[in-house]
Amino acid sequence: MANLIEQLLNALVLAGLLFLVSAGLSLVFGILRVVNFAHGVFYMLGAYLGFTAVAVTGWFWLALVIVPPAVGALGALLEASTLRFIYRRPQIYQLLLTFGLALILEESIRIVYGPTAKGVDPPALLQGAISLGGLLYPRYRLFLVMLSLAVGAAVWLFLRTTRAGLVIRAVAQNSEMADCLGADVARVRTLVFGAACALAGLGGVAAAPMTTAYLGMGIGVIVDAFVVVVIGGLGSIGGSMAGSLIVGAAQTWGAFYLPETAMVIMYAVMGAVLIFRPWGLFGEEE
Amino acid sequence: MSPSRVLGAAALVALALGPWVLARHQLSLLTDLLISGLFAMSLDLILGYTGMLSFGHAAYFGLGAYASALVLLEFAQPVPVALAAGMLLAGAVAVPVGWLSTRSTGVYFAMLTLAFAQFLYTVAYKWRSLTGGSDGIAGVPKTELFWGGPSLASSQAFYLLAAACVVLSLLICRAIVRSPFGRALQAIRENERRFTSLGRDPRPFKLVVFVIAAVFAGLAGALFAPFRGFASPEVMFWVFSGQGLMMVTIGGIGTLIGPILGAMVFILLQEILSSYTEHWMIFTGVVFVLIVVFLPGGLVGTARRLGVRG
Amino acid sequence: MLETRGLGRSFGALQAVADVSFGVEAGELRAVIGPNGAGKTTLFHLISGLLAPSAGRVLFRGDDVTALAAPARCRRGISRTFQITSIFPELSVLENTRIAVQLKAGGSFRLVGGRSVLDASERRARESLMFLGLADRADEPASTLPHGDQRLLEIAMAVAQEPALLLLDEPTQGLAPDDTAATVAVIRQVAHEQKLTIILVEHDMDVVFDLADRISVLHFGRLIAEGTPAEIRASADVQKAYLGGLD
Fold first, then answer.
1. Is the CB of residue A159 less than 8 Å from the CB of residue A165?
2. What's this model's pTM, rounded to 2 decimal places?
3. Which residues of B are less than 8 Å from A280 in CB distance?
4. Concatenated DSSP letters for B169-238?
5. Residue C177: exposed, middle, or buried by beta-carbon count in 10 A (0-12, 13-18, 19+)?
6. Which residues contact C34 (CB under 8 A, 6 or more apart)?
7. Average per-residue pLDDT in chain B?
8. Does B110 touch chain C (CB under 8 A)?
9. pLDDT tens digit string along B240-273?
10. Which terminus of chain B has a lower count of CB atoms within 10 Å, N or C?
11. Distance of residue C71 Cα from the nearest chain B Cα, in angstroms
């Protein structure tokens, strides 16, 4: 029984991190109609910047607060200086561009930080384990679950209840009309892109104490995020949530019962979804 | 004769003269360029002509390399047998992966190709007993042209084989894109919905071209293994797929010959830059981004456009 | 030629087309009119097979084609144009038309050679282009054509397929008066010479009354009137539908 709860929690931790990354990916697609291949690298950047922030200030909480906006700002800057100019082109070029950006960013991180992984200590408050009715579970992981839930709720509320959120959803549905009605579409796009990168960066900072900051993070998370959005459907936050839970569960239980073939389960689930719904569970037909 | 035909003939003659004109290391470099060019050209079939963006094409290169390596090392067969094995394995894997992937379009397809490729990479990485794990398979020999035939151990001989394969592949691909099938692919690229309304389901076309592209990528990989003497998981990694995309984009999407030139430019750039700095990858990335934004037609595409106007 | 029985299609709570039953005779030129949002384009999608119906059947030449998707229906003889121009932008005008012929006629899986397929389809394509007056622009990229010529290209592509039933979705949309008159003349000529059955969706009433043998009127997805142009012009229901609601 304790085992089951532990696995459930592990699945939630994974799902939470995946959600932070794939929600941003999904948002960017919903609003900009672009799949940001560099998204995983922003996640990785968050982790490395988190490492630096903690190394310099000694405060993890500070890192958690200042790193995501920094990553978001970089993302917004890149969008405004490159992606903005090629929106009208066929989708392929935008994908290629974000791919190129991913390569540049990844190499930059390698140059600055070198090839070895960087460990980040969790703050004192979250160290050690907590007792949950007989089960000893790491505090930090619980924190991760709560963090992703809180952020998920905040994003959802923001989109549904604020005026800015309304504008964003309008641009997603019909950017030309929104433009005519006075929304500054270009600025919305830049902001959304930046916000999505900030989310990914937050995921990275939060993940660093658990996984360390290492160079393979970017590609690892982007592939998982891709599987999540394929299963859940692009452009749907609810889909990202569902997809994250499915992938998180599949990976956790797969890793436990069939360690060598954990990934196979994930791809099998993805394959199964695609056979019946090639645009994801909650996605729109293209 | 049209200018492009003259150019083509001249290039063929130049290639054929290679072994007598170039030094051994230059010939080696040219072989490397040709193999990468073949890989890039195969990617152009799906990217440039059918409009399918694949982030996982390197997987088929890798499959070709591993199959070839095993056939040469374990069974000591002539190189063409290894080439056939590479093409077969790549094609065989491409069928189910392609079938699943082409059920989706656009960005979903792109993401799927990456996911499947990473899966295959991980299999290559973990299946130590078959693939040698992260070390890969080393000591792959260049055997002979056919049973009891001339050895391909010299760089001249292997170069001629590689050049012949690449030229032949180019001619075949050219015939394909000019055929009714190739024309249909281009229509799919331009407007898939219209294609459907005009009487055909695009999916079988996409699957067929996906497999064909995989086969040619497998051929390139199968040449790579004996040429370099090893096969390793790196050649299945997404970075390698990305390099393929860069070669195609730099050379010219949808031109067949462009990607081959793009591969040459890319590798030469790599060679030159790496002698100045170990971080040449960044410069290549920047060049790539600049080309995507300012010169989407690539070298050949832009040249053609200028030539038409002039 | 074409018959629909109780055809309906809803998108969630929105009933775009409801209980539409009508029939079009061979050789007839039928116009489908109605205020914006009446469901005309949805009806076309249902007939051509791009959308599956929520209810009802589509019968073509006596056969029930409801279960068939768009490619199959096209091969059976239903060709269409689109309200928002949908061509192959980077391909030449000739290639646009030629591929339309090839896709329907077959031979698209010839990977090598196929010279005969290409030649035959090219011949038919050139005929169609000449008919539509586009022959002199055959080698230009379709995207460089002015809007009016692109609408004609749409028609050329559909006509080149030698369909039995031609669906034209707002062929004069966005055209200047001169182009409109030319397009109307072309449609009339095509209908006459190739003995096509045509269903036409149009907003321009002059075009409708000029061309149509019979008119069907759609309002909020339902068929509210059907008859000759004179009957429709006089119908009180139709006037109420167009004038009674908001403009």
1. yes
2. 0.88
3. 108
4. HHHHHHHHHHSHHHHHHHHHHH-HHHHHHTT--HHHHHHHHHHHHHHHHHHHHHHHHHHHTEE-GGGGSH
5. exposed
6. C40, C217, C218, C219, C241
7. 88
8. no
9. 888 899 999 999 888 888 999 999 999 988 888 8
10. C
11. 4
Determine the residue among B173, B198, B205, B209 to mutate to test chain C binding: the one whose Cβ has the most chain C Cβ atoms within 10 Å. Answer: B198
Q: Count other C-beta atoms under 10 Å from residue C19's C-beta.
A: 15
Residue from the list B180, B181, B187 with its beta carbon closest to the beta carbon of C91:
B187
pLDDT tens per residue, range A54-78: 988 888 888 899 999 999 999 999 9
Quick one: tokens of A46?
A: 């968050």
Say if CB C49 and CB C111 are below 8 A apart.
Answer: no
Min Cα–Cα distance to chain B from C42, Å: 15
Specify whether the CB–CB gap between B150 and B144 falls below 8 A.
Answer: yes
Structural domain for C72, as ranges? 1-77+163-247
Q: Would you call A244 exposed, middle or buried from its count of C-beta atoms within 10 A (0-12, 13-18, 19+)?
A: buried
Buried b (16+ CB within 10 A) or exposed e, C31-69: bbbbbeebbbbbbbbbbbbbbebeebebebeeeebbebe
| C157 and C168 housed in the same domain | no
- Name chain C contacts of B200, Cβ cutoff 8 Å: 71, 103, 108
* Chain A contact partners (≥3 CB pairs within 8 A): B
Question: Last residue of a domain, which of C112, C141, C161?
Answer: C161
| The domain boundary residue, chosen from C107, C127, C161 | C161
